[in-house]
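note to self: dont lose this again. the chain is below, predicted strucutre after it. 416 aa total, dont forget to put it in the shared folder this time
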Amino acid sequence: MAGDRSPYSCQQCYFMIHQSCIDLPEIINVNRHEHRLSRRLHLSLGSWVCRFCHKNVDWSYGAYSCSICPNYVIHSKCAIRSDVWDKLELKGIPEEPGDIEPFKVIDENLICHFSHKEHYLQFNEEGIISGGSIRCEACVLPIYSQAFYSCVQCNFILHKTRANLSRKKRHFFHNKPLTLICGDKIEHCEMCETYSQGFKYTDFKYCSIDVKCAMLSESIIHESHPCTLYYITNTYIKCASCNEGGCRSFSCDDCSFGLHERCAVLPKTIQHWYDEHLIFLCYNKNKRGGEYWCDICEEQIDTMIWFYTCDSCCVTFHTECVLGDFSRFMPGRIVTHRNWRIKAMQTSPGFLPRCYICHTQRAVPFVLNLCNPQNNVFICSLECLVRTRLGRTSFREVVYFILYRFVLNSYLRNNE
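---
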């Protein structure tokens, strides 16, 4: 490493170390790996690649490596980054016991899950089609035909993959260990920036991410791109899905392809009552020719961004029209948020309420019912939600603001 003109050196064996490197911790945890890493002055001969920056590691300069995973190494400078290391030296500190199992096995078909201890959950084989009418308590996504666990006495349901989630984990998005908690309230996911009522991984202080994002690893394979995508920060990349720029994304080392976190977790298939079939996320450039129109909002689709399509009916939809802002809320369940009682309600051709704020009847999959004692108020989007008292802005203030803007614009037009 260049730039340090006063290193420490041994005259007998020609060992040399920078002043800035002499205090490097010996044993650490990083958020990119599940095991502890130890600092090695030299690696064995061979070709090594850093698991953080994906650049070559010179074996003679050493690095941090894992004693359990022989191929895992990371540059010393990469390992002690503030967004990777939790700043704890673990030398002399006993290793914590293994992860607590998320459930106890009762028999070959029954488990007792930590999130639903009052009743047993029964295993249901993959292939049982639910039609999307039932939803997983953890990710709040429809079951469809995946294997799942269902309560033998109530409506509590978990995808099999969600039931097996670790109680604690380290995640590349945060440098502290995270704990899995049940979804008893509405929270904001720091990673994909959506609101969800499902299970969360949290440090109980600064970070909370939903299980959908928590299941992502630092490197992913996405159907839209042939190369492996790696999670990077502090590098501006335009997202291939939404065509917007950002400094956090999953990107390709060999080209300029990138995906925002929220776009990387868009469901590949989904249902909407506007079409009787499953609709698919379209990102194939070969299909992007001519003009496309959204059958829900009847506005044109920008073919530079991803959209949903039904191959059987040859119809297309905006992703925001298909998903809406409240699709991660458990429908029909009343929760308290900022002193309001809220209930997400699924729309249908026979139930399409008018939004209290924008006065439109949008065919979004869910609307939010603010259970006002005087009357039922329906909200169609987060944009409208922040304009209510729930968003700390009174309806009267919104009306005054709209009137002010109307008068101001009229005055400006008349004086041009």
